[in-house]
Design a protein that fits this description.
Helix content: 10-25%
Shape: globular
Mean pLDDT: 88
Number of helices: 16
Low-confidence stretches: 1-29, 131-138, 204-211
Family: Belongs to the peptidase S8 family.
GO molecular function: serine-type endopeptidase activity
Protein name: CO(2)-response secreted protease
Keywords: Hydrolase, Protease, Serine protease, Signal
CATH class of the largest domain: Alpha Beta
Length: about 775
C-alpha cells in the first residue's frame, strides 16, 4: 500500500459514459447486467425529496420480475437531488433520455485514494519574509474553534492523541451531524475535537443479479490509515515528541488545531464508491461543515466531464451553500495534462517537498561512504558487514541478464542471494520498489541497494526493518566498480537518519499531477502546491511483522507522501484563515491563499521541479501556500456562483441543466457562450488556451475587492516573457473611502512571442501588500 509510500492514489479504474439513446437490439448480454449508477437531478429545494418519487421512477423502467432491484443504494436530498441504484445500461439510457428533470446518469465510479516539520517549514518561510508575524504568536491564540472540517476518506482512528479535545470549548450549535455507533466504534469515541463520524455502504452485484450492500467494515473506524493521516494533518491537536520510531521527531500538529473534525468514511483499501462520496458530501453540507477535504480523485486517463464526476457535482452544490471544497490534484506526474479535480469551484492542490530529507548511508568495504535515501529501521551498524553482489551476477539459471540486474521476481538464484546485500537497477517501471524489496527479502538477502538514474524524482521508500538504500547513477557506478574491483566485496547499510534544513525546498514532487487541465485549458490548474513529500502524521497502529523494530510497539505516526498529504495542508490553512476571518467566503479564502503564494524556495531562487528546472504554473499552480501572508492579502478575487454558472454555459452545457443545478432558476446563459470566454470568469489566475499570434490582442477582465485598509492605491507590475506584450488597464487602482471593488483588464498580444505556453504574472502593489496573479497563455 502506498500513497505514494503507504497508500494507493485514488484514481478511477474506468468510466463508461452512457449514450442518451436506448441500447440497440444487438447489445451484448453483459450490457444488461445491472450495476450501480448515479442519477443526478440537480439542486434541492430544501424541502426534502421523497424517496417514494425516486422509487416510482425506478419502477417505471425496471421489469416487474426484477422488482427486488427497485431500491435506492443512496438518496441525495439536502443540497442536491438524486439517487444511486442498480440499473442495466439500457435502463440508464432510458432514464437519461426520457426524463427532463434528470441532469445526468452515469455508472458509479470507483475512485482510489490519491506532520511535525511541514507546518514549521511553512511558518519559517513566512517568517523569513515577515519576521514580526508568526503562526503561533499570541495574536492568534484565541482564534475561533467553530470551524468544522469534513474529511471524506477511509474513516478515522479516534484513539490517536491528535484527536484529543483537551482545552476545546463546547461543540458549536450549528453542528447537526451524528457520531454513528458500530461494533468497534462508540458514540463516546467522539468528543469536542472529533465531533462527527459516519460510514456508508457500497453496492455489490452477485451472479444472480441481486443487489447486496457492504458497509465498509460497518464502522467509521479507519483500518487503512489514509483518513487518519489526512485528518490529523488538517486539524490534529498538538502532540509533543511525535515521531516514526525516532525519525522526524517533533511536535505534531494540524494546520488548524483549534478546528473540529467530522469524518465521513466513503472509502476502503480497495477504493471509493462515487455514489458514497456524493452521499457523504450531501450529508456533510447538511451537518454544518465549513470545509470539505477530499484526497481522492479519478484517474487522469479516464477523466469524465463535470456532470458525470461525483466530486465535481457535490463540490458545486457545496460551493453554492458556502462550503469550501479542497481536493488533491492526483499522483500521475510528471506527465502534462494529468491533473484531476479541475472544476473551478474546487481548490486543487499539487504536492511539494519540505526542508527535510531521510538519509540511509551505505558503507563499502574499501571505506567509501555513499549517501542514499530511504526510510529504513534496520539494526545494522558499521561493524556488521556482509558480502555485496550485483543482481546480474547472482541470476537464476536461464534468466536474462536484463531481468536479473533489475531484480525482477524469479530472476535471482536464492542460494547466491542468501546472506548478501544485493544491488539492483531501478530502470523497469513495471517492477516497483516494494516488489524489488520483497524479492530480496524472500531470498534471504541482508539488504538491498537500489540504483536509480532518476534518483532525484523519488520520495523516500519505507522498507520497514529491512536494510535499504536508494542511490543515484553516479553513486551506483561507484558501488558496481567496487564490486568488480575486489575479490570479496563487502558493505553495510546504516539505519536512516533525518537531515533537517535541506535545500532547495520546496521542490515540486515528481508524482504531483501537472496541468494544463484536460477538460479545459482556460482555467489554470492545479491552483497551488503544498507539502506532500514525507509528511509525518497520525496513522492506524498496525502490528505487521517486519514493519517495525522487534520489541517496539506499533507506531501511532507514519511518514507518507502524495497529493493526498498536500490537500489537507491547504485544508488546515483555509480553516486557520476562516477562524480568523469568520465572514470571509470560500472564494475570498481561496483567492487569499493564491495571490499570496510564494514562487521562491529557501535559497531565494524560483521554485524548481524534480528535474532541477524552474517550475511552471502548470506544475506549481500559482505557487506554494503561505498561510500567514494570506491572513492579510490586501485585494481578493471573489468568484461567485454566477461566475461558475457562466463557466458551465461557456463549457457547453444546456441552459435547462444549468438552471436545474442552480438556486437561480431564472438564470440565462450569455448569448455568446464559447469555450474561450472561460478565461473571463473572475478567477485569481489567468489561463488562455489559444492566443493567435496573427490576430488582435486577447483581453480578459477581472474585478478585485479591497479587504485591507481604505484610501489606498495599488499600482500594477507585469512580469512577462520576451515577445509577449501584456498590458494592464488601468495601471493604477485607487480605493478611495467607500470604494470596495474595482475592475481592470489585461490584454495579451503574441505576435513576437515564442510558440506554446508563455508564463508570467501581474502583481498589484501598495506599500503593504503584493497581490500576484499568475497567467498561462498558449501562443499559436
Amino acid at each position: 500500500m502506498a500513497c505514494l509510500l503507504l497508500f494507493p492514489f485514488l484514481s478511477l479504474h474506468c468510466l463508461v459514459v452512457i449514450a442518451s439513446s436506448s441500447s440497440s437490439s444487438s447489445s451484448s448480454s453483459s450490457n444488461q447486467i445491472p450495476k450501480p449508477y448515479v442519477v443526478y437531478m440537480g439542486s434541492s429545494s430544501n424541502v426534502g425529496v421523497a424517496e417514494l418519487a425516486h422509487l416510482q421512477l425506478l419502477s417505471s423502467i425496471i421489469p416487474s420480475e426484477e422488482s427486488d432491484r427497485i431500491s435506492l443504494i443512496h438518496h441525495y436530498k439536502h443540497s442536491f437531488k438524486g439517487f444511486s441504484a442498480m440499473l442495466t445500461e439500457k435502463e440508464a439510457s432510458v432514464l437519461s433520455a426520457g426524463h427532463e428533470k434528470i441532469v445526468s446518469v452515469f455508472p458509479d465510479p470507483i475512485l482510489k485514494l490519491h506532520t511535525t516539520r511541514s507546518w514549521d517549514f511553512l511558518e519559517a518561510e513566512a517568517e523569513a519574509k515577515a519576521p514580526t508575524s508568526t503562526w503561533s504568536s499570541h495574536k492568534y491564540h484565541n482564534i475561533s474553534s467553530d470551524v468544522i472540517i469534513g474529511i471524506i476518506d477511509t474513516g478515522i482512528w479516534p484513539e490517536s492523541p491528535s484527536f484529543k479535545d483537551r482545552g476545546m470549548s463546547e461543540i458549536p450549535s450549528k453542528w447537526k451531524g451524528v457520531c454513528m455507533d458500530s461494533h468497534d466504534f462508540k458514540k463516546s469515541n467522539c468528543n469536542r475535537k472529533l465531533i462527527g463520524a459516519r460510514f456508508y455502504s457500497i453496492p455489490l452485484t452477485s451472479n444472480n443479479h441481486n443487489t447486496t450492500r457492504t458497509t465498509l467494515a460497518g464502522s467509521p473506524r479507519d483500518s487503512v490509515g489514509h483518513g487518519t493521516h489526512t485528518a490529523s494533518t488538517a486539524a490534529g491537536a498538538h502532540v509533543a515528541n511525535a515521531s516514526y520510531f525516532g525519525l522526524a521527531r517533533g511536535t505534531a500538529r494540524g494546520g488548524s488545531p483549534s478546528s473540529r473534525i467530522a469524518s465521513y468514511k466513503a472509502c476502503s483499501e480497495d477504493g471509493c464508491s462515487g455514489s458514497a462520496i456524493l452521499q457523504a458530501m450531501d450529508d456533510a453540507i447538511a451537518d454544518g461543515v465549513d470545509i470539505i477535504s477530499i484526497s481522492i480523485g479519478m484517474s487522469s486517463l479516464f477523466q469524465s466531464d463535470y456532470l458525470n464526476d461525483p466530486i465535481a457535482i457535490g463540490a458545486f452544490h457545496a460551493e453554492q451553500m458556502g462550503v469550501m471544497v479542497i481536493c488533491s490534484a492526483g499522483n500521475d506526474g510528471p506527465d502534462p495534462s494529468t491533473v484531476v479535480n479541475t472544476a473551478p469551484w474546487i481548490f486543487t492542490v499539487g504536492a511539494s517537498s519540505i526542508d527535510r530529507d531521510f538519509q540511509s548511508t551505505v558503507l563499502l568495504g574499501n571505506g567509501k561512504t555513499i549517501k542514499g535515501s530511504a526510510i529504513s529501521l534496520s539494526n545494522l551498524s558499521s561493524s556488521m558487514t556482509y558480502p555485496i553482489a550485483f543482481g546480474k551476477d547472482i541470476a537464476a539459471k536461464f534468466t536474462p541478464v536484463s531481468e536479473a540486474r533489475t531484480c525482477r521476481p524469479g530472476s535471482l538464484d536464492p542460494k547466491k542471494v542468501a546472506g548478501k546485500i544485493i544491488v539492483c537497477v531501478d530502470d523497469d517501471p513495471t517492477v516497483p520498489r516494494k516488489i524489488k524489496k520483497l524479492v530480496a527479502e524472500d531470498a534471504d538477502a541482508k539488504g538491498l541497494i537500489l540504483i536509480d538514474e532518476d534518483y532525484e524524482k523519488h520520495v523516500p521508500f519505507d522498507s520497514g526493518i529491512f536494510p535499504f538504500s536508494e542511490v543515484g547513477s553516479v553513486a551506483g557506478f561507484q558501488i558496481i566498480h567496487y564490486i568488480n574491483s575486489t575479490k570479496n566485496p563487502t558493505a553495510t547499510i546504516l539505519p536512516t537518519v533525518d537531515v533537517p534544513g535541506y535545500k532547495p525546498a520546496p521542490v515540486v514532487a515528481y508524482f504531483s499531477s501537472r496541468g494544463p487541465g484536460e477538460l479545459t485549458e482556460n482555467i489554470l490548474k492545479p491552483d497551488v502546491t503544498a507539502p506532500g513529500v514525507a509528511i509525518l502524521a497520525a496513522i492506524v497502529p498496525k502490528a505487521n511483522a517486519g514493519s517495525f523494530p522487534i520489541g517496539k510497539k506499533p507506531a501511532g505516526y507514519a511518514i507518507t507522501s502524495g497529493t493526498s498529504m498536500a490537500c489537507p495542508h491547504v485544508t488546515g490553512a483555509a480553516a486557520f484563515i476562516r477562524s480568523v476571518h469568520r465572514r470571509w467566503s470560500s472564494s475570498i479564502i481561496k483567492s487569499a491563499l493564491m495571490t499570496t503564494a510564494t514562487v521562491y524556495d529557501n535559497t531565494g531562487k524560483p521554485l524548481k521541479n524534480n528535474a532541477g528546472s524552474t517550475a511552471s504554473p502548470h506544475e506549481t499552480g500559482v505557487g506554494e501556500i503561505s498561510p500567514l501572508k494570506a491572513l492579510n492579502p490586501g485585494l481578493v478575487f471573489e468568484t461567485t456562483t454566477k461566475d461558475y454558472l457562466r463557466f458551465l454555459c461557456y463549457f457547453g452545457y444546456s441552459e435547462k441543466n444549468i438552471r436545474s443545478m442552480s438556486k437561480y432558476t431564472n438564470f440565462n446563459c450569455p448569448r455568446n457562450s464559447i469555450d474561450n470566454l472561460i478565461s473571463n470568469i473572475n478567477y485569481p489566475s489567468i489561463s488562455i488556451s489559444k492566443l493567435d499570434r496573427h490576430r488582435a490582442a486577447e483581453t480578459v477582465k477581472r474585478t478585485v475587492t479591497n479587504v485591507g485598509l481604505q484610501n489606498v492605491t495599488y499600482i500594477s507590475r507585469v512580469n512577462a516573457p520576451s515577445g509577449l506584450i501584456v498590458k494592464v488597464l488601468p495601471q493604477k487602482l485607487v480605493f478611495a473611502e467607500g470604494v470596495k471593488r474595482m475592475s481592470f483588464s489585461v490584454s495579451f498580444y503574441g505576435k513576437e512571442a515564442a510558440g506554446g505556453y508563455n508564463f508570467g504574472s501581474v502583481t498589484w502593489s501598495d506599500n503593504r501588500h503584493s497581490v500576484q496573479m499568475m497567467f498561462a497563455v498558449n501562443v499559436q
